[in-house]
Amino acid sequence: MYEFEFEKPSTVAEAVAALADEDAQALGGGQTLIPTLKQRLAMPSKLVSLSGIPQLKELSDNGGMLTIGGAVTHAEVAAAAADSYPALAELASHIGDPAVRNRGTIGGSLANNDPAACYPAAALGSGATIVTNAREITADDYFRGLFETALEDGEIITAVRFPVPEKANYQKFLQPASRFALVGVFAAKYAAGVRVAVTGASEEGVFRWHEAEAALDANFAPDALDGLSVDAGGMIGDLHGTKEYRAHLVGVMAKRAVAAAG
Amino acid sequence: MPKDNGIGASPKRREDVRFLTGAGNYTDDINVNGQAHVHFLRADVAHATINSIDTSAAEAMPGVVKIFTGADFAEVGGIPCGWGVTDRHGNPQQEPRHPIIAHDTIRHVGEIVAAVVAGTLEQARDAAEAIELDLSDKPAVVNMAAALAEDAPKVHEDLTSNLCYDWVFGNPDDDAVQAAFDSAAHVTTLELVNNRLVANPMEPRVAIGDYSRATDEHTLYTTSQNPHVIRLLMCAFVLGLPEHKVRVIAPDVGGGFGSKIFHYAEEAFCTFAAKACGRAVKWTSTRAEAFISDAHGRDHVTKIELALDADNNFTALRTNTMANMGAYLSTFSTSVPSYLHGTLMAGNYKTPIVQVNVKTVFTNTVPVDAYRGAGRPEATYQLERVIDKAARELGADPIALRRQNFITEFPYETPVALTYDTGDYAATMDKLEQVADVAGFAARRAESEKNGKLRGFGINCYIEACGIAPSNIVGMLGARAGLYDAATVRVNATGSISVMVGAHSHGQGHETSFPQVVADMIGIDESMVDIVHGDTGRVPFGMGTYGSRSIAVCGSAMVRATEKIISKAKKIAAHLMEASDADIELKDGQFTVAGTDKSVAWGDVCLTAYVPHNYPLEELEPGLEETAFYDPANFTYPAGAYACEVEVDPDTGKVSIERFAAADDFGNIINPMIVDGQVHGGLGQGIGQALLENAAYDEDGQLLSASFMDYAMPRADDVPFYQVDHSCQTPCTHNPLGVKGCGEAGAIGSPPAVVNAVIDALQSGGKNVAHIDMPLSPARVWAAMNG
Amino acid sequence: MAKVSMTVNGKAASGDVEGRTLLSSFLREQLGLTGTHVGCDTSQCGACVVHVDGKAVKACTMLAQEAEGAEVATIEGQANADGSLNTIQQAFQDHHGLQCGFCTPGMVMSAAALLKDNPKPTEAEIRDYLEGNLCRCTGYHNIVKAIMAASGQDVSSIAAE
Ligand SMILES: Cc1cc2nc3c(=O)[nH]c(=O)nc-3n(C[C@H](O)[C@H](O)[C@H](O)COP(=O)(O)OP(=O)(O)OC[C@H]3O[C@@H](n4cnc5c(N)ncnc54)[C@H](O)[C@@H]3O)c2cc1C
Ligand code: FES
Ligand code: FES
């Protein structure tokens, strides 16, 4: 690691001010950033820890709208959302391992937008709103491709608002080594329609599978997806699975998610 | 009744207490006063000419002590290869120089290009970034077949080609072998890959070099399975140091599995640099470095053919294998695909004609060497896969086909140079059928099918040659070392015992099991016996731990030394009791005169040896310390039968191991608990190879699976509880303990069972899949099902 | 350099650290608590698991300064007050749940965290919980068995001792 300064502010305003320094970077749980720094792939001048800001640790459930502070850990979501949004809690409880879940945060995961990460599927599949110190961004506008988001430099995710669906489920097919999603599908049924978000699969990062959504709008059942498939062309092909395999898994996982959502 | 002490008992491991309380002493836990740290600048391209290295900016960076490049090592030797194989024409293997630091050419990603020694590791890393390399890339040779093509770029310009050797073993007469195939009623052919693996002991390698100007002595702390071998190789071949000026210490070592046998450049570097820098130099490998600098394992591509007569008897076997050596020859590399592999190709079967053909190949990849099983898993995998395929083609029962061809009479001379001293393959198969509940499989399959899963059952047998080895025989075959072992039993005046052993324990539990033997022989409490290992300054000599040899070879040396102790102690006891030593009996730590009630205790005899007031000084030296070197008369031959049951998800291709059973014959057993643990660990690795692990290179020689993010290690939920049985015991006939060794069996015997089971599952689902190359990842299984 | 202070195994501990100093380095190098091991650089192996304020975390993936004021527990503090092995440690020894010992501190710390939340975990729950703890020696059999035994479950029917 290159050396950096460490700062641990206690308010969002202080954090925003601290992040104004050139090359300062936010530190969530560090579960992605620290391994990256160990490889010397980044050279921040300063890390601004978000773990000491009470506002970012809040979690509230306002009848149908679950709001999760940007520094809430995966383990905390798994515990706190178990009743209000079980599909989200389930998802959070299968990110990484217990020690990773005790540190890693929702804000860090969404800011990082790893193409194989789980939360992006939940946020996009739920039509969540990403709340920052400066603005609110809908999930549909937020994800911009591999590791790319709508966040500006120094912008902090302060909270994420999840409208709670009638039913939902996330199915993750594990990449055997990293245990991130080789393919993950989040399917959620809202009064306004079904949303299906796919992670792990596409070269463009998390995406909505509109064709499946339309089919499920008509009939929220696994069979509704019979005959539908995503184009293998845009899928990721690597050591762990070809493009065709990932395209196939999208179909299988989508059906399983719908079946499990009930 | 299980015994509660001595040979055959399972006392709890004494070493566990320090490991469980954080008091272990691993190499990285050691810090030498004033030590500096080295960071190795490693090649990030697979093949290139080094035009120049400019270290001037780096040298001016804060904290830098000294920067080394290949030029600094021009005067010292290269890393030696410990085994010279003679090819089919009688010529020696091609053996390139293996420099400590790349001199003019880079030959694999991860090769050391420069070494920066600085006050702190981060300073060394900072400075390494300021080193300017001027390289001219050369085309990388990665694929073995391509490397052997006429016009292939050469990994080593000074060699004639990328062929290390072309070797034939067993029956060299091509026509005779072909005639056997021509007259066969059935021939089964299979092409397969034994996937390249990274050993990945959880403790990465560490080396600390220290040098005393006062005594001109070097100390190397290193994560090694065999400190004496490291000292010998490093002193004699690399640095040209007298051995008595070098001490090598391998303290607690966090697993090895073969990868810590070999002498590595980093060890020689730290030893050399400590003197050059005037301060100790420490290197701790990161996991990222381990992936590109620890020797890899396996990496064979094979075509195997099995001929059978009309009654399904095996009549001939022929194999053609290409084995990857990587860019340089690591310590045992050339022996693995030749003698450790070819000699096992008969397996448990009486096939009269066996011909093994092996080409070893240089490529621009990390050197490949022994990994748990070393050559024997490769042999077992081919053989047990081709037999399974033959059974399927012939509609024969895979268990019956194997049984019919078992060797049943011992000693048995195989057509591939070994003499199996003893065994009972039918007995382990009987036991396996029982432990694996073969009878209940149909019901379990039906249950799986109800849940939409395909269930498969696979078995295999294995035999291995352990306890390497009779020195004269391996010498004839090209080994450049003796493969005996040594032990010194030092009895203290008050009767407690230190046993200095040449074997090294890095998980095997020697600290517990070795004392069981000595205490049992004398009849004293195990707590009175300690072993000392892993330090050339305290242990006279030894060849170390690998090839499941510790108890069979070093244990035998320990028995011999203890016998000498007992013999001398009896003389002392005879003197004390005024009897003839022929009449002295030793039981439960008491010496008695046969037929009398005279007795003297162990402790009194020991005290007398060191306080020889009443002592036969004219006939006997005082003191009680004996050393034995033991050179085995033959290999030992653990063997057994394994069974695996899998479920395959037909929608995704995901395989899950539902049951795994192992029936082994390890001969006599010192500590059953430890033996079970060794098998479990081997099974975990074998299942890892079969389903998960793969060191994959791209065509430019970049390792694609270069971290745990892409190299799939078996985790707790990838494996089931195993059913392990070792009640079948045909004791080894030629070593004093009747032991055979158990360290590698699990890794050798499990991959074919897993693959056989998956093929069985797919066939049961109507998928006509004859073979899938390991690892059987979901993607590969799905592709095979839909191919 | 900044000063950090925390409680480690019940005792006050402090030292001067850089921004980049990891909790694992602080424990190993500054406090000499070398029982916390480092087996990877991608936060996957779990050899470094310690407890921070009662929760299992990977000490290699947390900055030392993030633990300012925290209660940190490491393997060195797990034994009973009289120095004897605690229930989990004892179960690991009784059931041969370790071989080379390198993964063991992390395994014991993870097991302790699991049993705190889930006093009687099933085999599947244990295997799932150990996702972030790699062991290359044991094939996991005796680790899982030891944790079941430590939770008071009867393990006598599990194949092989
Ligand atoms: C072993 C392991 C397994 C894992 N498995 C999975 C998995 O299965 N699925 C999965 O989805 N993830 C997985 N992860 C990643 C994990 O979920 C991370 O916690 C997460 O991706 C990053 O969150 P963090 O809080 O740790 O962020 P950090 O690592 O601290 O930061 C990541 C990035 O986000 C920025 N950042 C952090 N917080 C904020 C914020 N509030 N506002 C703006 N920017 C911010 C940082 O500057 C940095 O660029 C795994 C990680 C590990 C180590
Ligand atoms: S060292 Fe912390 S997870 Fe590997
Ligand atoms: S005991 Fe060696 S890694 Fe687990």
Q: Can you tell me the CATH architecture of the largest domain in chain A?
A: 2-Layer Sandwich
Q: Greatest interface and its residue counts?
A: B-C, 62 and 59 residues
- The count of DSSP E runs of length 2 or more, i.e. the number of strands of chain A, is 12
Shape of chain A: globular
Distinct ligand kinds: flavin-adenine dinucleotide, FE2/S2 (inorganic) cluster
- What does the main sheet of chain A amount to? 5 strands, antiparallel
For the structure shown, list the relevant keywords.
heterotrimer, B: 787 residues, alpha+beta, Aldehyde Oxidoreductase, domain 4, seven-stranded mixed β-sheet, five-stranded mixed β-sheet, 30 strands, C: alpha+beta, Ubiquitin-like (UB roll), DNA polymerase, domain 1, 29% helix, binds flavin-adenine dinucleotide, binds FE2/S2 (inorganic) cluster
What does this structure look like?
- The complex is a heterotrimer of chains A (262), B (787) and C (161).
- With 262 residues, chain A is an alpha+beta fold.
- Chain A is built from 10 helices and 12 strands.
- Chain A has a 5-stranded antiparallel β-sheet with strand order 4-5-8-6-7. In chain A, strands 9-10-11-12 form a 4-stranded antiparallel β-sheet, sandwiched between helices. In chain A, strands 1-3-2 form a 3-stranded parallel β-sheet, with helices on one face.
- In chain A, helix 3 packs antiparallel against helix 4.
- Chain A starts with a strand and ends with a helix.
- The model of chain A has no long low-confidence stretch (mean pLDDT 97).
- Chain B has 787 residues and is of the alpha+beta class.
- In chain B, helix 15 runs parallel beside helix 16.
- The longest helix of chain B is centred in the C-terminal third of the chain and has 27 residues.
- Chain B is globular.
- The mean pLDDT of chain B is 96.
- With 161 residues, chain C is an alpha+beta fold.
- In chain C, strands 2-1-5-3-4 form a 5-stranded mixed β-sheet, with helices on both faces.
- In chain C, helix 2 packs across helix 5.
- Chains in contact: A-B, A-C, B-C.
- Chains A and B meet through helix 10 of A and helix 3 and helix 20 of B.
- One FE2/S2 (inorganic) cluster (FES) binds next to loops of chain C.
